[in-house]
Structures are given as structure tokens and as C-alpha cells.
Amino acid sequence: MCSTQPFLGIKLVFLFIILYSSKISFAKEGVWPPSMIKNREADMRELGLQIPVDILYNNNGTGLNNAVVMFGKGCTGEIISSKGLILTNHHCGYGTVQGLSSMQNDYFAHGFWAGNPQQEIPCRGLTVTFIRRVENVSDKILPGIADTVKDAVRDSIIAMRCTKLEKGYKYTTGMDAIIRPFYNGNQYWVIISETYRDVRLVGFPPNGIGQFGGDAENWSWPRHTGDFSIFRVYAGSGNKPADYAKTNKPYEAKEFFTINAGGYKEGDFTMVYGFPAYTDEYIYSSQLNQVAGIVDPIRVEARTKRLDIWSQSMAQSRDIFLKYTSKRAGVANGWKKWQGEMHGLIANDVLSKKRTYEQEFQQWAQKDTETDYTTGLLSKIQANTEASDNLVRADEYIKESVYGIEFIQQGGTMDKMLQCFRLKMSSDKLHDTLKKQYAAMQGFYKNYDATTDKKVFVALMPMFMEHGAKWVPEYYATEYNVHGNSYARWADDAFSTSMLINTNKFSEFISYAKQDDSVVIMGDPAWQLYHSVTVIRNNKIIPKLSTYQIRSRYLNRLYMASRMRKDGGKEMLYPDANFTLRLSYGKIKGIDPEGPEGYSYQTTLDDVIAHDNPALDEFKVPEKLKMLFKKQDYGKWKVNKTVPVAFIADNHTSGGNSGSPVLNAKGQLIGTNFDRVWEGTMSDYYFDPSRCRNISLDIRYTLFIIEKFGNAGWLLKEMKIVK
Ligand code: ARG
Ligand code: GLU
Predict the structure, then answer these.
(1) What is the architecture of the domain spanning 1-282+577-723?
(2) Where are the domains positioned within the chain?
(3) Which of 6, 471, 495, 523 has the largest CB neighbor count within 10 A?
């Protein structure tokens, strides 16, 4: 069944009106669905495109869209040979490779390079999805439903129609079909796809290349990360998707990317073809204020405290380092991005730009005679958003400060155990279920340090107690009081009496627990901390908040509908990103980043070596790479006595674009997208071509590492490389 959630959001277009109607004639903003790029052809050509857009996407099923895959659950990959070779980011393959690695085969430390197809390693659970066709089916889904029909009614009619239509598409194409909302639910599009389930690991550089610069360089420019990995997709009979089988054959790709190793220069046309997951470009000012003024600051404040404590512990102990490194990367990725986002939104004065557009919209709305809802729309959005501000704030404090304490988060597992007692199971069944739940907790224990977490408790709990207002549970207030208003004493007491931390006590409880023993869990401070705040959240915050969110979704849909109609619909609006296939285009362009580095658009291997620091794990260049550098053994990939590593351009990208093919004016592969610059992470809400840059890995660095570092030159033979 199709999802009717149109990904919360409204839209912003004054940018086009203010900027583009004046002197800048080329649009670089936009994540365009493949079926819309036909309409962008003139603009793209003017900017430098040298091929018909039909080569990128067409209705005959022969477009280059067939060479772009959704990689796993959140990334993009590209097909680079007729035998199904896939190029994506190192950080996109990371989770899969973690599952394949062991002490004996530590691929993070040593890398992995298959010497031939037989050595490629099956990756159970990993899938890649090809998008075969995308079509606007609004005329089959929306007829007869007035804009103002409430979402509950509207959604159920739409869901019925979608199910039926999807069935038809699946039957006629023999492929998967899903219908998704675009433009905040004002249009519905069908996506015809095929998901392949036999994917194998082919090449993976060690972290010293693939993660070089780590969190320190994340979201920033200049960049020195060789962020790539290589996989291959296998097919069953008829080249169709199949479960893993030894007998499966490499997927025969009719469309794959030609690699251009001839380089590029500043100003050259570029495109990124991939799966951006989320943008909210048309967002109304007060909603943006909620993001940048409430949500982002709370997240950043809480994560700064958490990361500081984690980093101190990690620096003191290798054991804690290994336990927390992956958790840290995840928490820090958002933390750094949101700081850039707030900074960029303020530096660009985005709120007042939005308000200027909204005033203009209002003037138009006043005169609009086509519908009766436009006039009062903005004030309704404003009122609805502002009414929810306090709930949003409270919820964010709970999520980031209270649930940011692992001890309390795990109280949630105890809560699930408690449910089993309440189900009045037989003793055998109860033991069995509890044992399974406890076994599942071992993953948590493996990467947990209670001493560190206790410090996090002391740092984060005051945030909630001071800002949680009327949502602070009675239990919290009492405990704080009982412990002489000392967070340290409160934490000491909670951590030393809870069986969550005392695993002997906990496992003993699991093996002897009887029906009446639910009181043991209910007396545990970890459970009480989790439970008391969660009850308040579930009863007093979430229900009210979702009422506002439902209304906001409804109003946002009407706002988008109006914007699409405004001024005769002459502005061409792109639908916000929703993790469907999109193309963005722009130019290779440098930036003068904030900080000491100075203007540049490209980095090289010499820069990598200059950043080598054996004392810091994140900046340790592998010995073999240093040898190649010393001997200048760069083979065909030598450019100006070095090898280019990364470059930036002003393509509009977002999370999910990791691993996306970066193409030149001929549609040939020149790199792999992997990040954005810090100054421009606000592009999910506001794209400013003067400060937004996507960061890509130069294909020549990838080829150099494969051939010279990985000794896997056999892979290059199946690629089509031109200059
Ligand atoms: N910032 C990039 C993205 O959002 C890369 C993240 C992985 N790298 C890292 N150092 N944590 O996915
Ligand atoms: N690194 C991001 C990802 O994994 C892409 C960078 C971005 O958000 O622009 O999707």
C-alpha cells in the first residue's frame, strides 16, 4: 500500500523570484525527479550539458537511471561495468563490512580486495534497488477529492486507489511498484523498481584511507577521505533478482557509467544522480524557526555535553574507544551538521527572506479567487506552529537529554520485560522470553561503559530538570530532592542499586524470576527513570503534538498547492527530496571556507600526506600509501606530479546522496559524492549557490587506490575508462 505521509514540509521559492528573476539566470537549486528533467534541458544545456537529457532518463527504459542504485537502506551507488560492479562510499559499506570483519579478518585495519570473482564475499541482507520508471499518476489517484477534504478521509480514499493501481503496475511490469506522495501530497507518483538481494563485497580500503580525517574532517572542506568501497550485484535466471546462491551470475548491466579520467576544471558542468532523503525547501518561516531556534540548539547543547564526556573516556582507554567509536560517529554526524545548519540559516538571514516571500504570497492570496482557503492559510500555519513550540521543546529535551543517557534508554528494555510479567505467561514461557530479551541486551553491554554513562547522567539530567518545566515527573523531583539536590549523588545511588549495571544480579534475576517478581523491575531505578518520563511523554506530549503535526501536514499541503498555482504556476518548483531518485546539476566551484585554509576546489595526495599524523588514529596514513607517495608510483593516475583526491561543486544534495555518481557534461563518471561543506548544510531548508557545496571523491583517486594500493587492477579491465 502506498504511504500517504508527504514528508512534513512546506515550500520556499522566493529564492527563484528574488534571485533568478534578476541577474542569475541559471538554476542550480533543485533535486529533480528524472521524469522532470526534460523540462530542465534548456537550462542544463545553457550551463554546459552536452548530451540529450534522454540519455539520463527516458520512457524506453534505456536511460542512465538504470545505472544508479539505492544502496542498502540509506545510500546511493552506481554501476560501473557491464558485470554489475557497484561503486559507493566507504561509510555506506561500513555496517556491512563490520558484519564481515573479525579479529582474523580485520578489514577496517587492512582493507579487503577480492583477487577474482570467486573471492567476492556475499553480504547477507544487503540489497540494491534499480529504479526503472517513474510516472506521475495523480490523475488516477486524486480525481474527485477536493483540496480541503480532511486528511483522514482523503488518506483512506487514496490508500485504496494506490493499492489497486500498484497491483496493476506490478502485474503488467513484473516488477515492484510503489506510489508515493510528492509536493506535500499534492501529487502521487508511481515508482517501478527491482530490488536485487545477492550483493557481494569486492573492495574496501582500510580506514586509514576510507575514513581518513574521520569526524574531525567530517562535513568540512578541504577534505582528504578516500570514501569509497566496491560491491557487485548478482542475478538469478533471466538476470532477475534472486536470493543468494553460489550459482547466481553477475548482473548483466546494459546501462553502466563510462568513467572519464581526463579530469575537470573549475566551472565545468556537473550532475549528481542519486537518492536525497530529505529536504524541506518550502518550509514556512515559523516552522523553520522551530527547527533552527528550538530543535537544533537543544540537540547541539545536549550532544556537546555527551560527546565531550565520551571523548575524554575514549582518549583514556582503548577499550572504551573501541566500544564508543561507532556510536560516537553517529551522534557526532548530526551534531556537526546541525551546527552548520544553524550557522548558515543565521548567516543568510533565511528567516527574514522567508518572511519577505510570505508577505508577497499573502498579497497574492488576498486577491486569489480560485479557492477560499488561501487568504487565511499563513496565519493558520503560524498559529498552529507556535502553539506546538513548547511541546516540541519538551519532547526534544526528553529525547536528547533524558534518553541520551544510555542507562535510562535501557530502562526501556526492562519495561518490555515487565510487559511479559503482565501477560501472565506460564513460568517456562516467561523464563524463555526473558532469556531472549536478556540475550538481545548483550549487544548493548558489549559497547557500554557505566562509569562514562554516569558522567553523562550528571551532565545531561540538569538540562532536562531545568528546562523540562511541568513535564518533569514527580519521581525525578523527589529523587533529586532526596539526594540533597546533587546530581552526582543521585547518579551514584541509581547506578549502584540498579541491576542493569550489575549483570550478575541481572542474569540471576532472569533465571529465577517468578510471576510475582515484576516488583523487582518496578523497584529498579533504571526502569523508574525510564518509565516515569515515558508515561508523561506518551500521555501528555505525544498525543497533543501529533494533533498539531496532523494539522500542520494538512495546512502545508494547502500551502504547497497554492504556491504551485500562484502567478499562474509559472515558477517551476521541484518536489522536496523524499528518498526517491533525483538529479541535481551545477558546476565545479571552489569555496573560501571559514577557517585558515583558503580558497580551493580540489585536494590531492600531497595534501593527504601533509595531514599524516601517526599519533592520531583518524589521521594515520597507511605505510603502503606513504611508500607509493615516496616513489611517486601513481601509474596512469598521475596529474601534476600527484593524484587528485576530492573536489567540490555547487550541486544540490542531501543525506542519502552519499555514494551518488558525479557526472560531467557528457554523463560520464568523474567522482562519487560523499558529503557537503559545513557552511552549506542548511541547504536542506535553503539552497544558496554561493555557500552550498557537495564534496566528491575524484574517480582517479579511486582507480589509483584500487590498482596501486589494493593490487586489484583486474577490476579496471572490466570498466570503460576514457579520457
Ligand atoms: N557527513 C557524511 C554523511 O552525512 C559522512 C558521515 C560518515 N563519516 C564520518 N566521519 N562520521 O553521511
Ligand atoms: N554523507 C551523507 C550521506 O551519507 C551525504 C552528505 C550530505 O548529507 O550531503 O548521505
Answers:
(1) Beta Barrel (2.40)
(2) 1-282+577-723, 285-557
(3) 6
pLDDT computed for residue 321 by the predictor: 86
Distance 225 CA to ligand 2 centre (A): 14
Distance 415 CA to ligand 1 centre (A): 33
The partner residues of 663 in beta bridges, in order of sequence, read 271, 669
CA angle 533/535/540 to nearest 5° reads 100
Q: On the CB side of 207, how many CA atoms lie within 13 Å of its CA?
A: 19
Helix axes 151-173, 542-569, angle to 10 degrees: 70
Query: What pLDDT, on the 0 to 100 scale, is given for residue 570?
Result: 78
pLDDT of 2: 52
DSSP-derived secondary structure for 246-267: TT-EE---SS-PPEE-S---TT
C-alpha cell belonging to residue 389:
513550540
For residue 257, give every residue at least 6 positions away whose Cβ sits within 8 Å of its Cβ, in sequence order, or none.
Answer: 64, 67, 78, 79, 80, 661, 663, 667, 668, 669
Distances (CA, A) of 159 to 1, 169, 534, 549, 575: 6, 15, 32, 20, 21
Q: Determine if ligand 2 sits within 6 Å of the CB of residue 576.
A: no
A 10 A CB-CB count for 355 gives 15
| Below-50 pLDDT ranges, the chain | 1, 3-25
Q: What mean pLDDT, rounded, does the chain reach?
A: 94
pLDDT computed for residue 109 by the predictor: 93
Q: Is the CB of 498 under 6 A from ligand 2?
A: no
Ligand 1 pocket test, pick from 92, 675, 683 with the greatest ligand atom count within 8 Å of Cβ, gives 675
Neighbours of 612 (CB within 10 A): 17
> Residue 7: what pLDDT?
35
Helix (H) or strand (E) holding 87: strand 85-88
CB 655 within 8 A of CB 276: yes
Three-state DSSP at 60 gives: coil
75 Cβ neighbours under 8 A, 6+ residues apart: 88, 89, 92, 275, 656, 658, 659
Cβ-contact 630, 562 below 8 angstroms? no
Q: Can you tell me the distance from the alpha carbon of 180 to that of 256, in angstroms, rounded to the nearest whole number?
A: 27
**Helices 374-397 and 350-367, packing angle to 10 deg:** 150
Q: What is the pLDDT of residues 107-158, one digit of tens each?
A: 999 999 999 999 999 999 999 999 999 999 999 999 999 999 999 999 999 9
Does residue 222 have a cis peptide bond before it, meaning omega lies within 30 degrees of 0? yes
What digits encode the pLDDT tens for the residues 349-361?
Answer: 999 999 999 999 9
Question: Looking at residue 27, what is its pLDDT?
Answer: 59
Beta carbon of 273 within 6 Å of any ligand 2 atom: no
Among 579, 653, 684, which is best to mutate for testing ligand 2, by the most ligand atoms less than 8 A from CB? 653
Q: State the DSSP H helix or E strand holding residue 703, giving kind and residue range, or none if neither.
A: helix 699-704
Instruction: Output the residue whose Cα is nearest ligand 1's atom 3.
Output: 675
Q: Is 658 a catalytic residue?
A: yes
Task: Please list the residues that pair with 233 across neighbouring strands.
Answer: 199
Q: 3-state class of 36 per DSSP?
A: helix
d(CA 392, CA 390): 5
Please indicate whether residue 528, judged by its CB atom, sits closer than 6 Å to ligand 2.
no
Q: Which of 658, 660, 683, 696 is catalytic?
A: 658
Q: Using CA positions, which residue lies closest to atom 8 of ligand 2? A: 655
- Report the separation in Å between the CA atom of 476 and the middle of ligand 2, taken as the mean of its atom positions: 38
